[in-house]
Amino acid sequence: MVKEQAGQVLAANLRALRAQAGLSMSELARRSGIAKGTLSQLESGTGNPTIETVFSLSNAFQVPVSTLLTERTAPEVVLVRGAGLDVLSSVAVDLRMFRRLDLQDTVFELYDQRVRPGAVQHSAGHPGLEHVVVTSGRLQVGPPNEPYVLDAGDYVCFPADQPHVYSTADEEPVVSVLLLQYPSDQVVSVLASCVSR
């Protein structure tokens, strides 16, 4: 999806989630820590969301990131061209979401993740588990005080609800696959609680 289409998908999903939860723009700004003006731009499809913005909205609504970024479709064959994907960028990380998978009891989000040298990406935590496979470079990921160092071909899985970091272990960029995993009952109960608020 091109950037303009991705912005329109985010705008539609943001409006729908805010309406379902019965939240004013001011209340969503308070819960997410995002300025009302920025939220207004995102809802109109004219904003330029960062990784932090999308994860803040994910935490505010207590839904997977893919709930904000994807349209629901169920084709038998899915072909996603990386060149057409919108990139969410941050201090050290570029993410491109390939797909959301709703399985019987689990929701997965599949991302291409690139980590740039010279900076550290900090996450305060969010629901689910993170699975990371490094395809090139050396990655430091996990608890801020004792991150795991992964070489190409290495894999790690850790609870995402605690603070964690991403950075390169040397001066070379890192290419990796990120798979976010959420229990679907958590997603359903979270959506129900948003609607009942």
From TrEMBL:
Organism superkingdom: Bacteria
MF annotations from Gene Ontology: DNA binding; DNA-binding transcription factor activity
CDD domains in the cross-refs: cupin_XRE_C (cd02209), HTH_XRE (cd00093)
Keywords noted in UniProt: DNA-binding
GO CC terms of this entry: cytosol
Keyword flag Cell inner membrane: no
SMART domains named among the record's database cross-references: HTH_XRE (SM00530)
Chain ranges of the HTH cro/C1-type domain: 14-68
The keyword DNA-binding belongs to this UniProt entry's keyword annotation: yes
PANTHER family for the chain: HTH-TYPE TRANSCRIPTIONAL REGULATOR (PTHR46797), METHYLPHOSPHONATE SYNTHASE (PTHR46797:SF1)
Name of this protein: Cupin domain
Organism name: Actinocrispum wychmicini
